[in-house]
Every structure is written in structure tokens, then in C-alpha cells.
Amino acid sequence: LNKRLLFLQEVLGALGLAAETVHARAEEAGRNPKYREKYDFAVSRAVAPLNILFEYCLPLVKPEGRFISMKGPQAEEEIHSALPAASLLSGKIEKTEKLSLPDGSGRTIIIIKKNGCNKKIYISTKLKAIQRKQAKRAIKIQPRFDKQLPFPMLL
What's the rounded Cα separation, in Å, for the pair 141 and 11? Predict the structure, then answer.
């Protein structure tokens, strides 16, 4: 983590930009009142599912600020499934942009605008409830009785 911060500080200096870099894990910083809703931007790589990244990063962003996430080239389904988490955290997807890299691979940049404040409580349990509800809708397991086996098989 510290190597990444040193790199970012070097880039900021080379570009003549001023920005605060914070040595903390997003999932921990988002719970800390010192960091909650203090930043104009938060940025992440594709290190976790998008709904989890929303949970980690949107609490850090001020109202009217932006969270920018990089995902792989086929991010549409993940974006769609993460919409309830974004809404719960006062975020709305503002723009997506597909990029082609020189090696031929692709990325999707997702820009989420934060429209309001988050509650002071850590809302992980609410997000987990939404995820469970989505999982139940997506997977309907029906038992099938096979005549060859003495027990039911799940399909």
C-alpha cells in the first residue's frame, strides 16, 4: 500500500497537482469519521465486486463528489447488479466509458456521482440483505427426483 502512495505522490508532483493521499484500507477508512465524506474523488481498481467497492468507497466521498472505478471490459452485468448498493449509499452511475489498451485488452471506467450524505452507521448489514435478496431471485433451485438415485438431485 505504501509503495502505491509513494508512486501517486510522485505522479502528483510531476503533474503539479495537490491532493491528499491516505495510507488506509478503504473498508476501514470508510468507517472512520475522520475520513467519511471528506473527499471530492475516490478511485479504485478492479479489486472486488462493484457493489463491495461502492460500500468501501462511497462513504469516503462528499455529496456531489465522484467515485471512479475501473473494471474489466464486460462490466454491464456487474454494474446492473450493483445498482441497489449504489442507491443505498446515495450514489448514481453518471457515466461508463469503455477503453481499449495498447495490448488489445479492454477496461470499463465507471463514474458514480454521490447525491447525498450517508447515515453515520456502517451499513454493511443492509447491503448484505440486498445481496441475499438478489441471490434468491437469481438462483431458483428446484429439486428433481431421479428414478436412478435413491435421493433428490439439485439442478
Answer: 51
Q: Where are the beta strands (DSSP E) in 2-76?
A: 39-44, 61-71
The continuous run of DSSP H or E covering 121 comes out as none
CA–CA separation, 93 vs 24, rounded Å?
25
3-state secondary structure of 26: helix
Q: Dihedral of CA 22/28/34/37: which sign?
A: positive
Q: What is the Cα gyration radius of the chain?
A: 20
pLDDT of residue 95: 95
> Taking a C-beta distance cutoff of 8 angstroms, is the pair 59, 37 a contact?
yes
Tell which residue, 49, 62, 68, 108, has the closest CA to residue 89.
62
State the Cα–Cα distance between residues 80 and 96, nearest whole angstrom: 12
Residue 13 sits at φ, ψ, to 5 deg, of -65, -45
pTM of the model: 0.71
Confidence at residue 120, expressed as pLDDT on a 0 to 100 scale? 58
* Cα distance between residue 74 and residue 52, in whole Å: 18
User: Tell me, what DSSP letter sits at residue 37?
Assistant: T
